[in-house]
Each structure stands twice: as structure tokens, then as C-alpha cells.
Specification:
It is a single chain. The chain has about 325 residues and is α/β, with parallel strands linked by helices. The protein folds into two domains: about 5-255, HAD superfamily/HAD-like (Rossmann fold), CATH 3.40.50; about 270-325. It has eleven helices and nine strands. The chain has helices at about 20-30, 90-100, 110-115, 120-135, 170-180, 195-205, 230-240, 250-270, 275-285, 290-295, 300-325; strands at about 5, 35, 45, 60-65, 100-110, 145-150, 190, 205-210, 225. The strands form two sheets. It has a seven-stranded mixed β-sheet with strand order 3-6-5-4-7-8-9, sandwiched between helices. The longest helix has 26 residues, at about 300-325.
């Protein structure tokens, strides 16, 4: 399956706007089916500024569960009209961004597997969340990305009936985001209201916060902290200090930049045609001909040098074609 990424144009808030305006802006901020992963999963991409989709290499992130962490929801939610932000969420997200954290939502969406709604509905809900959060915070692109997993081992819809490494408590969504965005997982946090959120975060190497006081924890599950609500969770993250960029060599950054360039090269280059190789071989064959013709038939030095220049140009073109095919 082809891997593609479709990013939306940035959008702006000005003055006070209604929920309808937030939804409209959310539709501009995120496109349905915005990315297809090698596993066949899609993530919803929110882009705030041109180029923001590629985070600064090794940048810390706060991963966020969605339901009952950012929005009120105890069941399957596929209707954007039912989206209600929890108290303190826009303000808390803005505080995290101002402290230097980027924000990525990771959510299980078993309602798709149960046939309650489709993946397009998940995207619509995420557009609504993005729009409402940005409206309340009076800024754009507060949330960087949404990842979701539509699979469930007891699915009603056959296409989604299986376990999958993206499904929490497995850390697949966090690890995929780390590969996509160059995230420093050791300096990142996972915030959620379920034990599976803490398990996924710990498995990815993040510090974890479980929202909900009075929880009975299992012996093998020990979140870094327990918070009363989202605002309390933000306080805990910020009390740990502002995120620091790792002091390691710049080799990490250069290697990630090189990987990004190579990925761009791979996606832009046609595969399997052999056209560049054939053109290069043909040019190599004909390249000596102007030089040979110059030796045999030309007496004037200036004309001869002109023919030599043609030979050099053709040779360089041939080498370029062969190198392109080799890459």
C-alpha cells in the first residue's frame, strides 16, 4: 500500500467565533484520510504552520488520550456535534505548548470495528476537537497530530477484526509518531484516564500520568504520577521542568535530516522502470562519437574543442542518469 501524507493549509482565528466557525476551521485544518501507514492505518494530521509537521529533531511531546482526557465521552463517539471539551483542556494544552512540548493525540477507536461509525467519522470528530481547542485558546494548530487505531480483536466488521500493535496498551501509535516526527520519547509524557494509557506510555519509554484519583492499580502498573484532572496533569508535567533538548552530538540531528531527505527522494523517484539506466547507457555509447569525429574530420582547434565540450556534457549526463538509477 502506498504511503502518503496530505497536509492542510494553516487557518487563523480572529475575534470571537461560534462552534460552527470552529468546525469550519477544523475542516480546513485536517483532511479526511490524511495519512496511510504501511499497516493500513490512517492518522489525522493537523498542521499549524508551513513546515511544522516535521518537528525539531528529538523534541519532547505530551501524548494525550482522547476520551475522558480531552473530551467527555464514555462510549463510541462518531458524531462531531457531541464533542464537549473537558474543563481546563484548551488552557492546559496552551500551557504545555508554551513550555516547549508538542502535542499528539493517540486514541483507540474500537467503534469503527464495532460498526458504530466509519474512519471518516473519526476524522470529523478530530476536526471538531482541533477547531474547538484552537477557538478556545485563540491560536491555531495547538494539537500537532491525531493517531487512532480502528482495530479490535472482537470486531463486528471483518476488516477490523484483529489485534494490532497500534491498539493500546501496546505502544504502536507512540512509536509510529516517534518515527514520523523525531520525538524524544525519554523526555515525553503520556497522559490518559485508563490503565492502558499508562501501559502504552511506559512501553514506549515515556513518563506517564493517570487521570483519576482513588484508582486501584495493578501490581505491575505504576504510572509516574496520578492526577485529579487534566489541569492537575498539566501542573505535574510542568513541575518536572521545561523540556530540555538532549546534549548528545549533532549526529542524531544530522542522521534524522538525512533520513528525511532520503525518504523524500524515495517518494519522489519512480521505481522499477530502468528508464534512467537505459538513457545513461545510451549516452555512454554515443558520448565518444563527437570526440572521434573531431579527431577525424576537424582541422580548426576551436571547432575541435567545441566538439570535445559536447562529449564532456554528454558524458556527465550519462553519469548523472546512472547515479540516479543506482539511488
Amino acid at each position: 500500500m502506498a504511503v502518503g501524507r496530505h497536509l492542510s493549509a494553516p487557518f487563523h482565528w480572529s475575534g470571537s467565533r461560534s462552534r460552527e466557525s470552529a468546525a469550519s476551521a477544523g475542516r480546513n485544518a485536517i483532511r479526511s484520510g490524511s495519512r496511510t501507514s504501511p499497516s493500513g492505518l490512517r492518522d489525522s494530521v493537523v498542521r499549524s504552520q508551513p513546515g511544522d509537521d516535521i518537528l525539531t529533531p528529538m523534541q519532547p511531546v505530551v501524548f494525550l488520550d482522547r476520551d475522558n482526557t480531552l473530551i467527555a465521552n464514555d462510549g463510541d463517539l462518531g458524531d462531531p456535534a457531541r464533542v464537549t471539551l473537558l474543563d481546563g483542556v484548551p488552557e492546559g494544552l496552551q500551557r504545555l505548548r508554551e513550555a516547549g512540548y508538542r502535542l499528539v493525540v493517540v486514541t483507540n477507536q474500537g467503534g469503527v470495528a464495532r460498526g458504530r461509525y466509519g474512519e471518516e467519522d473519526v476524522d470529523r470528530v478530530h476536526r471538531e476537537i482541533a477547531g474547538l481547542v484552537d477557538l478556545a485558546a485563540d491560536r491555531r494548530g495547538l494539537i500537532d497530530r491525531f493517531y487512532y487505531c480502528p482495530f479490535h480483536p472482537e470486531a463486528v466488521v471483518d476488516a477490523y477484526r484483529r489485534e494490532h500493535p497500534w491498539r493500546k496498551p501496546q505502544p504502536g501509535m507512540l512509536l509510529q509518531a516517534s518515527r514520523d516526527l523525531g520525538i524524544d520519547l525519554r523526555s515525553s509524557w503520556m497522559v490518559g484516564d485508563q490503565l492502558r494509557d499508562a501501559q502504552a506510555g511506559a512501553a514506549a519509554g515515556c513518563r506517564t500520568i493517570l487521570i483519576g484519583p482513588g484508582r486501584e492499580l495493578e501490581a505491575d502498573i505504576a504510572p509516574t504520577a496520578i492526577a485529579n484532572d487534566f489541569t492537575d496533569a498539566v501542573d505535574i508535567v510542568l513541575a518536572s521542568g521545561r523540556p530540555q533538548r538532549p546534549r548528545g552530538d549533532s549526529i542524531n540531528e544530522l542522521s534524522q535530516l538525512r533520513r528525511a531527505i532520503e525518504d523524500l527522494n524515495e517518494s519522489a523517484r519512480p521505481r522499477g522502470t530502468g528508464t534512467a539506466r537505459m538513457i545513461g547507457a545510451g549516452l555512454m555509447i554515443i558520448a565518444p562519437l563527437p570526440f572521434v569525429a573531431g579527431l577525424l574530420f576537424l582541422d580548426e582547434p576551436q571547432t575541435f574543442f567545441a566538439w570535445m565540450l559536447v562529449t564532456i556534457v554528454v558524458m556527465l549526463a550519462a553519469i548523472g542518469c546512472l547515479l540516479l538509477e543506482r539511488r
